[in-house]
Amino acid sequence: MTPPAAIMQEVAGRLRAAKRVAVLTGAGISAESGVPTFRDALTGLWARFRPEELATPEAFARDPALVWRWYRMRRDMVRAAEPNAGHRALVELPRHVPRFTLITQNVDALHRRAGSTDVVELHGDITRARCAGACPRDTSLLHESEWTERDDGPPLCSRCSAASLRPDVVWFGEMLPPAALERATAEAGACDLFLSVGTSNVVEPAASLPWLAARAGAAVVVVNPDMAGQRSGANIHHLAGPAGTILPQLVRAAFPESPASA
Q1: Which of 4, 44, 51, 89 has the fewest CB atoms within 10 Å, measured from its CB?
Q2: Do 154 and 233 reside in the same domain of the chain?
Q3: What pLDDT score was predicted for residue 44?
Q4: For this structure, is 87 an active site residue?
Q5: Which segments of the chain have a pLDDT < 50?
Q6: In terms of domains, do 143 and 157 share one?
């Protein structure tokens, strides 16, 4: 799927001239790496559950071992995936844009594995865990290599040795990390180009970010195979297609001198 050349060139020109760029990515970019979207049908032992029944504080309080096993299965799937050309194209942009902000709704850490070093994670990171008890969040974050799996439930927090660890993700009924949401909102309102990549823009509050940027005067570029439900407007551009195809094309068109475009 290739967008019309005229639209691609117009968007590339805007990207080349931009001083501040903000990007929001959703499940679509990671689906291209083989990561199932959150609401994809569960299989095997998990087929009798709905994701919404497992991703809540109440579910964890009721059966922490069950919830931990489900997230361990999801971590295994994420670990088997590799960043795709769309992730890698976004790594290139900070080298050309004076101020670049990458915001993601994904929890799979594929942006960081691709090489992005500053990622605003609205929904957390499935490869991390944190204390489910009273430990401060900023001192209890652990990566997979820092905990020991148990057969009978989640690992214990190594800081307090009293509470269990829980996945460092935002569950239904929980607020997004205030600092991450505040930064995402500020950058959306201050950028002159906003890229919405691989998201249907229906899950709030992230869904409002592109249109906040548009109201503030930024050009908004939607990159997604399906444009159903996406807004239209004089300063809203649609590049229909998968991120792994469209984003490398856009980087090459905007910055043909870049080594990554060769």
Answers
A1: 44
A2: no
A3: 65
A4: no
A5: 262
A6: yes
Total structural domains within the chain: 2
What is the CATH number for 117? 3.40.50.1220
Predicted TM-score (pTM) of this structure: 0.92
- Which residue of the set 87, 111, 123, 237 is catalytic? 123
Q: Are residues 30 and 98 in the same domain?
A: yes
| Phi and psi at residue 29, to the nearest 5° | -70, -35
Report yes or no: 81 and 9 within 8 Å, Cβ to Cβ: no
Predicted local confidence at residue 2, as pLDDT: 58
Both tokens assigned to 193: 């180009």
Three-state secondary-structure class, residue 169: strand
48-102 per-position pLDDT tens digit: 788 888 999 999 999 999 999 999 999 999 999 999 999 999 999 999 999 999 9
Find residue 102's DSSP bridge partners.
23, 119
Shared-domain flag, residues 138 and 226: no
